[in-house]
Each structure stands twice: as structure tokens, then as C-alpha cells.
Amino acid sequence: MRKLTNALAIASVAMLASYSTTSDAHEVPYGPAGCGLGHMLMGNDAGIMQLLAATTNYAVSYNQAFGITTGTLGCDVGGGSDGAQIFIETNREAVAKDVARGAGETIANLSQIGECSNSDVLGTYLQSNFDQIFSDATVSDHVVGERIVELMETAEQLNCAGLDPA
After folding, report:
1. How many CB atoms lie within 10 A of CB 108?
2. What predicted TM-score, i.e. pTM, was given to this entire model?
């Protein structure tokens, strides 16, 4: 029971932090918890429903990356630079961890969204630019997304054919 309580507390803090820093540059058809199984089960209602949706998305089954990559579970974000931006903003915490490691599921999914030639090369490249992407803890999700997408668009060695030219 204590683990569930801790997971709910962590999810609520993460959701509130994400909600307060998310840009209104684009409208999304889901609440602050993002798309995924939680969105499908709990909907877009504010408050406790978003906490439950976030818990379902992250603590229970971590299904958002799958939904975004496949365009299922209410995650129809499309491709291109906008799709990559939304993916990064929605999965910022997981993206940060994978960029720090230089590999992981979110890097593989981001590589697929951007139609990059090699996800390993993308992971290594993003890892080498970690300090530029995550310059401090207060950088918004939107800015992190912009920085990663810009790196993906401009680095010729990544060969991300699915992104809009910079």
C-alpha cells in the first residue's frame, strides 16, 4: 500500500509540474496526464481523474510511448517535427533518462517518428548534447522538445528524413 501511495504522490507532482510548464503552442485532445491507456480509461476530466490517468500511463503499464509510436490509445500525434515535439513534451522525464544513457525506448521511438537512419547514432548524439538540451531544471517541456527536434533536423549524420527541414 505504501508503494502505491508513493507512486500516486510522485505521479501527481510530475503531472502538476508538467501541466504548469506545458506550452499552449498546440492543442492536444487529452489532459495533462497525456494520451495512453490512462487517457482512454479516465478521459480528460481535471483533478483526480488526471492523477489516475497519469498513474495508469506511467506507474502501472508505461504505455504512452507505444501509443504515440503506433498512433493508438488516443495518441494520434502524427509524424514530422510536430509529432516529434509532442512525443518529447509528453514523455519528457523518460526522454531525459534515455538521453542521459544515450539509449532506450523513447530514443528508439523518437528515431522512428523522425525516420532517422539509426537510433543508436541518435542516442549517442543526443547524449553528447545533453547539457545543451537540459541546460537547467527549469527548462520547459516545450523548449526541451524544440532543442531536440532542432538537433535532429540539423545534424546530417542522423539522416532524419521524416522531419521538416529547419
Report:
1. 18
2. 0.59
